[in-house]
Amino acid sequence: MTDFSLILANLFSRKLRAALMLVAIFFAFLIFGVLAGVQNGFNNIGGSAGENRLVTINKINFTQPMPIAYIERIRSVEGVARASFANWFGGYFQEGKNQVVTFAVDPEFYLDIYATDYRLKPEDRAAFMADRTGLLVGAKLAERWGWKVGDRIPLSSNIYTNRNTGKQTWDFTIVGILEPAQENADTSVAFFHYAYFNESVSFGKDTVGWIVIETTDKALNTDVSKRIDAMFANSPAETATDTEKAFNQAFVGQLGNITLIVTLVVGAAFATILMIVGNTMAMAVRERTKEIGVMKTLGFPSARIFKMVLGESLLLALLGGLPALAAAALLLEMMRASVGFPGLALTLDFTALGIVIMVALGLLTGIVPAWNALRLNIVTALGRQ
Amino acid sequence: MRIFNQIIAVCAINLKSLPQRFWLSLSTVVAVAMVVTVLLSFLALAAGFKRTLDGTGSESIAIMLRDGSQQEVNSVVALDQVRLIGEAPGIVRKEDGNPLVSGELYVIVDGVRRSTGLKANLPLRGIGKDGAALRDGLSITQGRMFEPGSNEIVVGEGLIREFAGFDLGSEVRLGTGTWKVVGVFSMNGAVFESEIWGDVTVVQSLFRRGSSFQTVRVRLENPEAIDLLRDYVSNEPRLKLEVFSEKGYFAGQSSNTVSLIQNAGWPLAIAMALGALAGALNTMYSSVASRSREIATLRCLGFGGFPSFVATMLESLVLAGIGGVIGSLGIFLFFDGFSTSTLGQGFTQIVFTVSLTPALVKQGIVLALIVGLIGGFFPALRAARLPIVAAYAQG
Amino acid sequence: MTALISIQNGAKRFIKGRETITIFDQLDMTIEAGDFIAIMGPSGSGKTTLLNLLGGIDRATSGSITFAGQRLDQMNEGQLSTWRAANVGFIFQFYNLMPALNAARNVELPLLLTSLGSGERRKRVETALKIVGLSERAKHFPREMSGGQQQRVAIARAIVADPRMLLCDEPTGDLDRKTADEILSMLQLLNKEMGKTIIMVTHDPEAARYASRVLHLDKGRFVEQVAA
User: Fold this and answer.
1) Phi, psi of C59 (to 5 degrees)
2) Is B112's pLDDT higher than 80?
3) Cβ(A84)–Cβ(A211) under 8 Å?
């Protein structure tokens, strides 16, 4: 027997009570873990967002187009390493509800800039460059529809009309699968040639939705942004340039304040659990007043008893919390697979934060009972006067 | 009758001793209140959003979008098509015989949220001269309607509440033009209150849209006339349009967001409720333990076990019920009527107010009472079965 | 024989409200190694307080307490804990076993305060349980045992660390006559065979007969009688 087994025996001396407290703590940390994962997902929307990556959009709003001519002018700006562009296609497969995130892109530079996010076999890349109607689909998207290289599929647009057919559908040949090159890469996307798009749309010709820029050095980001926006000031399509990360976060911000909701809910859950566990711990230790008195009589030093009581609440918090974080990680894994929302995962940061909170919970709920145990007078405890 | 008196007596004794267990009882109340607060805040958000969308639109207004475009922002409608619609049967005509029809343009512009200072998408709608007549419940609450052909705009009350820079009389830069806010309108809390309206021809020219529109809006002679309009549209090859009743269109926009918020709210509340249940069980078991001598004494005096069961259940239900009421009251006082906005399916912000309905309060209280019921049941059983001698062992 | 523990000029007073209650004053007593003392006296005579002082779990208001040359009244709490762990075994009226631990682990408890390895501890626990005749009950929890059995576990716990002195507070107060006699015989045996010095507080004249010396405490004074 050790002090630890003594702590364990005390903790589970009332099995029902211990189980109830563990359940309460488990759910608190399950909520924490899942919400932290969702938060992480939102933080990582749009992939890795390289630090030297900028996005230029129409100043009015990012849904407004810009002339395609801007791309060459931007490429000549000092500090721009390379630049590419894309257009939102508003794609869907067969039925309107089957949305497919589809971009018409400037193929070469786009794939170069996003090589950090997507891995593509060299032969697939070559095939894509060679085929005007080629389509690159992300691994997740391919898996969802059972698409493979060589398939001919139609994709429809809820915005554009194909001039050649008068319909809103374009035919594509899948020439490659985009594999994720990093954890947060969203592979439920499809890319095709802007040239194919531009030659066949009935309107919106020669305009692009947004331009993505890689600077030669992230220190130049601000300068480059200013130079670009100044270049198009007072033109019919003024621009707004910012880092890709800021752009992504602004987009998420449109949904409402996710962080605030997460913090409030987790806060509410924790305040509740803290009260329940704190109260119950205090009660449990009070019930054991006599036992603690006996331990002291046997010669256990007060400090050792203090540590044991504190150890008990710490153990309780960890026993309830650690499995909850594991369960949250599992749940997020399942959610990620079914929803296709990359970044939905319990990161090391949040796991560490969770453990810190567990320790804090354990110390906070145990400190008062432990202090009382430390101060306990043997004679009073044993009722011997 | 005797058992009834017993129950009353035991319950009274029990409730009177509640203050002795103040802190533990309080923790149950707070835990349940938190659960109800979290649940109701989500449900009230969803209800508020749904109410805004459901409250928008009339059965006797039809709107038409290009087939397959799903959202106004994706749609394109040509001037010729608007003219063709004007010849459709079943639509209301003005006194001069011309059709009551409005071709409209829907452009997304940036606004700045008052609360966070962050940019958000706002809809700038160009409406025809009959646009106002095609909106039921519209009233100008401040200033006046814009003059046709001018760079004047009117803004919805919801939009002004949430976004900065649109106060009456101010000048706003939207796109390449500068606009003057000359009026504020309300529309019974409808989605339109989150919009900016200007003259369609001015919007077309400032946003270089030529003579194209995005939606066509007409008033139907009666709600059933929509079928006449649909037949007409489908038999006219130049009109590849989809026809919706205005009400149907907006109701269809609501489902996703509402179910998303509700889908997040219920699992969260249930997970928290399980935590609170653990607390409630704990509280009630210790309540029974601390009253065991009292219960046993009553049993000695000839009271049955059932009154102790009822009294314990009652204590649990009262604590949980108080928690439920506090939670609901908290939402009612601090969150109900709170104005906020989120991205709607049209890719623009929809402003809505959080709405706590009696039906939601009922759901919250029911959840609280379920926690109280389960949290009280097992301890109550223990109270009822408490052996009389046990209470006297080990003084 | 040499003195094991002695009190010189001991006094114990409580302040209760505005009143000062004197339990005893100018108390002197000496207990020799190997003694088996029974302390008797009416309720409120200060028996339990005296036992608390001898066991170092309470402090005298004044006076000195000496155990084998060490001054207990000059030790701090930590030193007293260490001293108790090494020298004193306690036996209480209501056994005071840890409900969460089985018999063997209850007995093992004081050994956690020693530097003994787990093998040695197990051996000592086995021996102690054998002495009290409960070897086959090692895995039982207190709630699964009768009062007499619990008290025997408590005795095993008191002797497992091999202290020189056993302090018993009404050790048979909660037991029937037959069981009480078994427990008292066991204490007598521990005194005679293992040389434990035993100080026992009791109400029961029958119990006091097992002692080699009976002290009557009345209003804080001793009235000494030699057992028959």
Assistant:
1) -115, 145
2) yes
3) yes
Angle at the Cα of A155 (from A152 to A157), degrees rounded to 5?
160
Q: Which of residues 10-49 of A touch C (CB under 8 A)?
A: 10, 12-13
Question: What one-character-per-residue DSSP string does B54-104 give?
Answer: HTS--TTEEEEEETT--SGGG--B-HHHHHHHTT-TTB-B-TTS-B-EEEE
Test mutation, B282, B286, B378, chain A, max A CBs within 10 A: B282
Mean per-residue pLDDT over chain C, rounded: 89
In angstroms, the CA B385 to CA A234 distance is: 85
Report residue A1's pLDDT band, with 50, 70 and 90 as the boundaries: confident
Are the Cβ atoms of A63 and B69 closer than 8 angstroms? no
* Integer Cα distance of A378 and A296 in angstroms: 7
Q: Name which of B76, B119, B279 is nearest A276 (Cβ-Cβ).
A: B279
Say how far apart CA B32 and CA B279 lie, in whole Å: 9
Q: Which domain holds residue C179?
A: 3-226
Q: What is the CA radius of gyration of chain B?
A: 30
Residue C41 has what DSSP assignment? Answer: -
Please give the Cα distance from A317 to A315 (Å, whole number). 5
Inter-chain residue contact A299 with C58, CB threshold 8 Å: no
Number of domains within chain C:
1
Report the residue from C14, C77, C109 with minimal CB separation from A298: C109
Does the structure show a pLDDT above 70 at A384?
Answer: no
Number of Cβ within 10 Å of residue A343's Cβ equals: 23
Quick one: which H or E segment has residue C129? helix C118-131
b/e for A294-333, b at 16 or more Cβ within 10 A?
Answer: bbbbbbbbbebbbbbbbbbbbbbbbbbbbebbebbbebbe
**Considering only CA atoms, which of A320, A34, A266 is closest in space to residue B34?**
A266
CATH of residue C216's domain is: 3.40.50.300
| Contact flag B343-A254 (C-beta cutoff 8 Å) | yes
